[in-house]
Amino acid sequence: MDESLFKRLELHSEAVVQLNVQYRMNRQIMSLSNSLMYEGRLECGSERTASALLSLPFLLSVQSELSSYSETHPHHNVAWIQAALSPSNPVCFLDCSMVPALESVEQGGVSNHTEAALIHKLLSLLIKAGCKPSDIGVIAPYRQQLKSISALLQSSAFIGVEVNTVDRYQGRDKSLIMLSFVRSTVEEGNLGELLKDWRRLNVAITRAKHKLLMVGSATTLRRYAPVEKLLNHLQQENMISFKNTSCSCQLPTRPYPACTYNRRL
């Protein structure tokens, strides 16, 4: 009885019928799963599904504030933030290899405070741009990271944002998913088993319907075969940003003027 349904199905492959048509995610997000697991067989069930994008009705106002901030703070490059927010970029991997954003081990768990801070800042902007908190999900493979992120989302503006493990998101979806990979270390050696799980990674990247933002250290993550395959696809499709020292990789302490959240959301 301790054996999961997935494990039992793996032992009896004749009982499994693969469904190749999906109505959840747009074509850019679907392409990740096609590259990782389906070898191009997965298809969108309709053009409406394939072309659906995140709705951000107040994005122009937020982009304008970011541009104004950049003019008065030229040492802070906000172009990567603007690109990450854009609904026309449904998939974006923010590579923190050069930040640096090293992991930390505490209370028996692994967390990454820089990734948590980046997620907090991006969520602040996305909500201000009009994304409903209830349409947002945050996924991390380690519970200590979930605690770190949740601690930053205590403001009433974030009520409705769901922060959880990939297993808790099985069979569910959100319009916007932010995925923190956490692991970032200069040391060689065993990095654990969670990110070596092909099925879990596939579940994580297919919970988003309209926009998927991933945060992680590509340098470290390439040591995991499933994530390396994902990164190769992302690189080929120009879905990786925030990745070199020519861009300001410092996180602005205040990347936009004092934020007042729209209460009509």
TrEMBL record:
Chief place of localization: nucleus
GO terms of molecular function: 4 iron, 4 sulfur cluster binding; 5'-flap endonuclease activity; ATP binding; DNA binding; metal ion binding; single-stranded DNA helicase activity
GO terms of biological process kind: DNA repair; DNA replication, Okazaki fragment processing; replication fork reversal
Chemical reaction(s) catalysed: ATP + H2O = ADP + phosphate + H(+)
Origin: domain of life: Eukaryota
UniProt-annotated location(s): Nucleus; Mitochondrion
Keyword Metal-binding: yes
E.C. number: 3.1.-.-, 3.6.4.12
One Pfam family in the UniProt entry: AAA_12
Alphabetized InterPro entries for the sequence: DNA2/NAM7-like, DNA2/NAM7-like_C, P-loop_NTPase, SF1_C_Upf1
Family: Belongs to the DNA2/NAM7 helicase family.
Reported function: Key enzyme involved in DNA replication and DNA repair. Involved in Okazaki fragments processing by cleaving long flaps that escape FEN1: flaps that are longer than 27 nucleotides are coated by replication protein A complex (RPA), leading to recruit DNA2 which cleaves the flap until it is too short to bind RPA and becomes a substrate for FEN1. Also involved in 5'-end resection of DNA during double-strand break (DSB) repair by mediating the cleavage of 5'-ssDNA.
Name this protein carries in UniProt: DNA replication ATP-dependent helicase/nuclease
Species the sequence originates in: Lates japonicus (Japanese lates)
